[in-house]
Amino acid sequence: MIFRELARRLHLALIGPTTPVQQAVDILGNADAYIGGRWHPSFFALRGGAPVIPLSSHTFKMRALIEMTGLPVNVFDVTDLARNTDTIVRQLLQYRNEGERLRAELRAWGEGRGEKSCSNVAYLDRFSSHDVISSISG
Q1: What does each C-alpha distance from 59 to 29, 37, 66 come to in angstroms?
Q2: Among candidates 38, 75, 32, which has minimal Cα distance to 53?
Q3: 100-108: long-range contacts at Cβ-Cβ below 8 A with a sequence spacing of 24 or more?
């Protein structure tokens, strides 16, 4: 409800929880930037070239994801955003000013990670096959 009110006050669009997944992924990847604390939406944004400004979460995953991209690692405390508003806005404007060069770098990074995840899944598929397990157990 807080995001609905914020979107209404600022005349912004809001991606609702019933938005089809592929549509949400496309929106995130084409955004100017993503500000949030969730790993999957952050990765979807990065795959499309949208830089991420991370908010704190209950795990290390956001910090690790941002470190891997080479973006500045400055995870903002979600419970105290008012204190960091100016810094967040400056970071957002810097990303927008870097434009297509930054977006291309992030897309390339995301594509590489996507390919790697496919090879990891293929490895696990092969590993879980009966032949591999039989040869290991001997």
Answers
A1: 23, 10, 13
A2: 75
A3: 102/49, 102/51, 103/48, 103/49, 103/50, 103/51, 104/49, 105/70, 106/46, 106/49, 106/50, 106/51, 106/69, 107/47, 107/48, 107/49
Token couple for 40: 């999957």
Question: Are 52 and 72 within 8 A, CB to CB?
Answer: no
pTM over 0.70? The answer is: yes
Four-residue CA torsion sign, 78, 112, 99, 73: positive
Residues 6+ apart with CB under 8 A from 51: 33, 34, 45, 71, 95, 98, 102, 103, 106
pLDDT in tens, 8-26: 998 888 888 899 999 999 9
Query: pLDDT, tens digit, for every residue of 58-102?
Result: 888 999 999 999 999 999 999 988 899 999 999 999 999 999 999
Integer Cα distance of 35 and 78 in angstroms: 11
Distance in angstroms (rounded) separating the CA atoms of residues 49 and 44: 9
